[in-house]
Design brief:
mainly alpha; Multidrug-efflux Transporter Regulator, Chain: A, Domain 2; Globin-like; 3 domains; 3-stranded antiparallel sheet; 3 strands
């Protein structure tokens, strides 16, 4: 079956403008343009749009999606299986949050008593699951299952204050890095402050700190585009600058 822009937009629950934009950026081209100048979409394009919308539900940007679906190694069935895994994980996360809310409601009504630890279990487990989903294979290959399992266990035992401290440090690292970048010197006082803040942040999650492991994480920020994108989202080059500052801090260079 074939569809015009309007018909496909109605079928998929998106706007006609969205489909035209997808055509403009090359992520979803029509199968052909008919004699009247209308875009015409076939089965292949319908299936591709479904894939795009799945990835959008997983909060991926269009540039990332385009690289995936237009890769020579892209396989629709395998992609659907991965979508299913991620959606099931997302459902589990939501179920944990719902259960946490229900327990909190019961506690406020005086029907049960919950500890301060229980109040944050769902949030901490979701953080662990997100990290495992995004980076699990890489960090387990690099540091081993035992180290990662210990780190996850430590995360589960964190207090509200520790979680808040970790979040605060994470924001402070980015703020100091922003100023340090202006010096263009990874050995500058500000750059070294950022490196030390990063060490403090790691120590909240790690059972044991070593300079070698710190340097390894810093290198991963440059080697893995997902980490690079996180640090470079405001200012390109930040991930590499942080890596260089940490190398100075740990004595890996200079």
């Amino acid at each position: 079956m074939e569809y015009t822009v309007q018909k496909l937009a109605k079928l998929a629950g998106v706007s006609s403008r969205t489909l035209r934009y997808y055509d403009e950026i090359g992520i979803l081209k029509p199968a052909r343009i008919n004699s009247s100048g209308y875009r015409i979409y076939g089965v292949k394009e319908v299936d591709l749009l479904q894939q795009i919308l799945y990835y959008r539900e997983l909060e991926m940007d269009l540039e990332q999606i385009s690289k995936i679906i237009h890769s020579p190694t892209f396989h629709p069935t395998e992609a659907l299986e991965k979508h299913r895994e991620k959606l099931l994980a997302k459902r589990d996360q939501m179920n944990r949050l719902i259960a946490s809310v229900e327990k909190t409601i019961a506690a406020t009504e005086g029907r049960i008593i919950i500890s301060d630890q229980e109040k944050f279990e769902a949030f901490k487990q979701n953080i662990i699951d997100e990290n495992e989903k995004a980076y699990g294979n890489e960090i387990r290959d690099k540091y081993g299952d035992e180290a990662i399992d210990q780190s996850n266990a430590k995360m589960k035992g964190m207090s509200e204050q520790q979680l808040a401290k970790a979040e605060q440090l994470g924001e402070e690292i980015l703020d100091v890095l922003s100023e340090a970048m202006k010096t263009r010197d990874p050995a500058s006082e500000l750059a070294q402050k950022a490196a030390d803040l990063h060490r403090q942040w790691l120590c909240i999650y790690w059972n044991q700190y070593t300079k070698e492991a710190h340097s390894g994480v810093a290198q991963m920020y440059v080697d893995d585009e997902r980490f690079t994108a996180y640090y470079d989202k405001k200012l390109p080059g930040t991930a590499q600058f942080l890596r260089d500052a940490i190398f100075v801090y740990t004595g890996s260079i200079g």
